[in-house]
Specification:
Elements lengths: L1 H10 L5 H38 L1 H5 L6 H9 L4 H9 L5 H9 L5 H29 L12 H4 L2 H15 L3
Helix pairs in contact: 1-2, 2-6, 2-7, 5-7, 7-9
Length: about 170
């Protein structure tokens, strides 16, 4: 059910961060990261093909100026490496890039491989952040009023955010 929800939300254009964090809270770092990766990859591929079916003109209406033509010209030939880079260095939201990549000349195979491999680090790092918060609150009263912020500042949470910082320098 979680993977299906992720796919539907992705195709609907809903940013995946909410579901990614939910996956970490509900299923932990490994389980959440794996389910997020599966749902995000399938959802991204579906959005890619929705864009292909809708056509360039429909999607290009939502993109300012002639940015679509410039983007396509510069990156279509790069294929797999361009998609992989766009996933590892998320300058633009993943959800919207699925549609943009769908109207470029990039091969579907390159998009799927680049997307799946490129999202692995972020899927697990963000799921780990949510899971670290969940671990920090284990055994506490479930009401929000009982949460002491000091519980959330611990080695587990600091490590999770440290991994997020490391994720930002991977491409360097």
């Amino acid at each position: 059910a979680f993977v299906l929800a992720f796919v539907v939300f992705t195709v609907a254009g809903v940013p995946g961060m909410i579901l990614t964090m939910t996956g970490g809270l509900l299923f932990g770092t490994l389980g959440g990261g794996l389910l997020v990766e599966i749902g995000a990859s399938i959802g991204a591929t579906c959005a890619f093909f929705v864009a292909r079916a809708a056509g360039r003109e429909v999607i290009a209406r939502f993109i300012a100026g002639n940015a679509m033509e410039r983007f396509d010209r510069r990156l279509t030939g790069a294929g797999l490496s361009a998609v992989l880079f766009s996933r590892i260095v998320p300058v633009f939201p993943f959800t919207y890039m699925n549609f943009v990549w769908g109207v470029t000349g990039v091969k579907a195979r390159d998009f799927m491989i680049g997307t799946t491999l490129g999202m692995i680090p972020a899927s697990f790092v963000y799921a780990n952040i949510a899971a670290s918060f969940a671990r920090s609150l284990e055994g506490t009263d479930p009401t929000l009023a009982s949460i002491d912020v000091r519980q959330l500042v611990n080695g587990d949470v600091v490590l999770a955010f440290g991994l997020l910082g490391l994720l930002t320098v991977i491409p360097i």
